[in-house]
Amino acid sequence: MIRLFLSILSIVLWISLSFSQVVSRIEVQGNRYVPEDLIKEILLTKEGSEFSIDKVRKDIRRLFSTGFFKRIEVHRFDEDGKVRLLYVVEDLPVIYKIEFEGNKELDDEDLANKLGIETEVGKMDVDELITGYTSSPAIEERLEIQRKIKLGRVLSEKDIKFLVERIKEIYREEGYPDAEVTYEIVPKKGASKIVFHIQEKEQKYVVDIVFKGNETFSSGELEDLMKTQDRNIFIFRLKPPFSEGVLKEDIESIREFYKNEGFLEVKIDYKVERKDGRHDIYIFIEEGPRYKLKELKITGNTYYAYSELVGNFLEKNRRKGGFYREKVIQDIKRNIGDLYSDIGFANIFIEEKKSVDPEKKEVSVVLDVKEGEPVYIEKVKIKGNYETRDYVIRRELRVQEQELAVKGGIKRSRSRILNLGYYEDVQIQPFPAADNKWDLLVNLRERFTGQFSVGLSYNEVTKLSGFVSIKKGNFLGTGDILGLSVSYGSQYKDNTLSYTDKWFMNKPIDLTWSIFDRRIEYTTYTVERQGISATFSREFWEYWRWALGASFQRIKYSDIDPSASSFIKEQEGKRESRKLIFSLSRDTRDFFLFPTEGSYVNLSYSVAVPVLGGSEKFHRVELTGSKFLKDTYFDSGFVLSTKGTVGFVEPYGGEEVPLDERFFVGGDFTIRGYEYGMAGVIDQNNEPIGSTKELILNFELNYKLHEMLYTGIFYDTGLGANSWGDFNPKNWRGGYGVGIRFITPMAPIRLDWAWKTKKVPGDTSSSRIHFVIGGFF
C-alpha cells in the first residue's frame, strides 16, 4: 500500500509538464515472467494517444490489481515535444505447472479435478484480471471459482497453503485422514512449477452407522443428510471412507435439519468405535419438544399485499402440522425477493426477527421489508462472443440499458439467447454500478456451430443410410443458418439445401427457404419428392409467432407391389402439389433441446390448391400442445412432460386425401411400442395407409442423472382413424416403457424400450426399441 501511495505521489510532480502531449513510445523493463504485450494490453495509456496523468495513475492501479507485481515505477521522458514512458516493474514468479508425487489411490487427474486446477495455461483475459468478471460456465459456480487456482498466474504463499490444505481435505474425504502433504517450488527460467509430495498413510472406512433416540425421522432419512456412508454390499460399497471432519459436518447437518423442522432444543452427540481400519458410528439424539409457528408478520411492504407475499407456503405448512420450519420462512423471503425483483426493486433487503416462547413452545417471526429504490441498468456488456456479432445478442435481450432491472426480463433474456442454439452456456450476471444502477455482464460460451458430418444413421422409416451434412448455424456471426445435406441409403435419399435469414430487415422476422430432392422406399411402394418451400414468420408480443409459407412439390409414386391395396395402387404416377401453410404458436419453453418448464402450443393449417399446375385439393389442421413441469417442491430433479395432439385432413372438390398427407400414428414420435403407422389405419396386407384423423396423448417423467444425461419412464396412448366415431377408448392403442436421453449440442438423442398395450395385425411383437436423434415433445 505504501509503494502504491509513493508511486501515485510521484506522478503529481508531472502535472505541470502535461499539456496535451502525445505518447510516442511505451517501454517496459524488469519483467521476468509477465509478457510485455500483456502489460501493455492492461494499460489504458496507448502509444499515439494523448498523455494523461489520470490515465497513468489508473494504469498503476490496474497493474497492481492483477497481483503480478511487487513494485511498479513509471518514468517520463520528454523528447521532441512528445512523451516516452518507461514502466519499470518487479514481477512475481508465475506457476506454469503443478505435479503430484506419492499419490497412489488418487491419480493426478482426480486430484487436479477435485482441486479445480486448470491443466493448461490459457490466454490471459485482461477484463477478468482487472474487473473480476469471469466467463464462468454458471453464475452459481462464481464463489467456487474464486477459490480455484489458475495456472499461468502468480501463486502467493497463501494460495499454495490453500492447495496443501485442500489436498489434505480431499484425502480425508476419501478415508485417509492422516495423509501428509508437503511441497517444493522448482524454479525454471520465466516460470516455476510446484511439486506436491503426498504420503497417503492407511485408509479408514465405515462399517455401520447406528442412530439412537430418533423418533420423528427414520434412520434412512437422517442418513440421506450425511456425506458419510455405511457399508452396503448390495451396491458394492464395501469400504466407504471415514473422515472425522466430514462426520462432524454431518452431525451439524442433522442438527440444522432438526432445528429447521422445529426441534429448537435438539441435542446430538456421537461416538466412534475403532478397530484397525474399521469404524462403527453411533449417533445419539435427544429430539426435545417441537415448536409451532405461532404467527408470521410482514412489515414495510407497500407494493404487495400480505397474501401475495406469503403465497401458499403458510397454508402448506399448516397442513403439515403447523410446526416452525426454517425452510418455510426462507421460501417466503425468496418469494418476496422474486416479486419485488419483477418490478425492478433488486436491492430489496428483508430483516428477519424471531421471537421464541420456551414455555408455550411457539415461534413468532416478523419480516421487515426494506424496499429501497428501483434499480436501473447502466450498461450491458457482452463477453465470450468470439464469433457472434454483438447485435445478434442484444436483439434477444429483454432488459436494455437505462431500463428497470427486472428479474423476469433477465431470466427471459437468458432463455432466448440459449435457444438460439449457438451457445453451450449463457449466464447474465449483475454487478453494482453507481447509485441504484447495475451493469449486466452477458457471459457466453460459444459452441462450434459449423458442422461437417459423415456417417451412418438409422430409424424405422428410412432404415440404414449414409449421409454427408454441412450445416453452419450463426452464419458469419449474423445468427443466420445455412444447411446442405446429402443422405443416401438402400431405401432412402434426402438432398436438401436450406437457408434461414434471422431478423429479416432488422425485424423479428425469420425468412426460410429450402430446395429438396427426397426418396423413401416403403414395403409396397416408393415415393419421390422434389420441390421448393419458403416460410415467412414473425414474432409478436413476447411468446407468440405466426408463420405463412408456400410449398411447390412434384411427387411420384412408383414400384407399387402387385399385392398392395387398391388405395396404394391409386397413388401411382406423378402429381403436382401447391400448398399454402399458416401456423400460430405460443412458446414459453426454457430450453428447446430439453425443456424443464414452460409450454408450447402450435396450431397449423395447410390447404392444397389447384393453381400453377397443382392437382391436390385438401385442408389439413393439426393442434399440438406440450407442458413441462419440474419438481420445485422437493427439488428432486424430476421433470414431467405432457403432450396432446389432435388433427384431421379433409378433401374438397371430390378428391381423395393423398397418402403422404395422412396421419401415420405409431412409432418414434407418436405412440412408442408400435411400428411406424401401426397404431392407425392398416390395409388388408397389414400395411399402414395413414388416417384422416388422429388423437394422441403422451406422458413422460424424466430424472436428471448428470448435466446432460436423463433417464425416464413414459406412457403414450391414442389412435389414428378415418371417423371420429372410432375413437372409443377401447380401440385406443398404448405404449409404455423406459429410456435414456443424451442432450448433445446438435440435438437430443433418445433410446427408448417400449411395450405395447395391444398387439395389432402386422405388428405382433410385445416390445420395441426406438433410437431417435431429435426431440419428442
TrEMBL record:
Keyword match Membrane:
yes
Designated name of the protein: Outer membrane protein assembly factor BamA
Any one GO CC term of this protein is: cell outer membrane
> Keywords of this protein's UniProt record, alphabetized?
Cell outer membrane, Membrane, Repeat, Signal, Transmembrane, Transmembrane beta strand
Q: Which Gene3D superfamilies match?
A: membrane protein fhac (3.10.20.310), membrane protein fhac: a member of the omp85/tpsb transporter family (2.40.160.50)
Compartments where located: Membrane
Q: What organism does this protein naturally occur in?
A: Hydrogenivirga caldilitoris
InterPro entries in the record: Bac_surfAg_D15, BamA/TamA_POTRA, D15-like, OM_assembly_BamA, POTRA
Q: What is the lineage of its organism?
A: Bacteria, Pseudomonadati, Aquificota, Aquificia, Aquificales
The cross-references to Pfam families, in alphabetical order and at most eight, read: Omp85, POTRA
From what superkingdom does this record's organism come?
Bacteria
The UniProt record lists the POTRA domain at 21-92, 204-288, 375-447
Does the record carry Membrane as a key word?
Answer: yes
* NCBIfam families named among the record's database cross-references: OM_YaeT
Q: Which GO terms describe its biological process?
A: membrane assembly
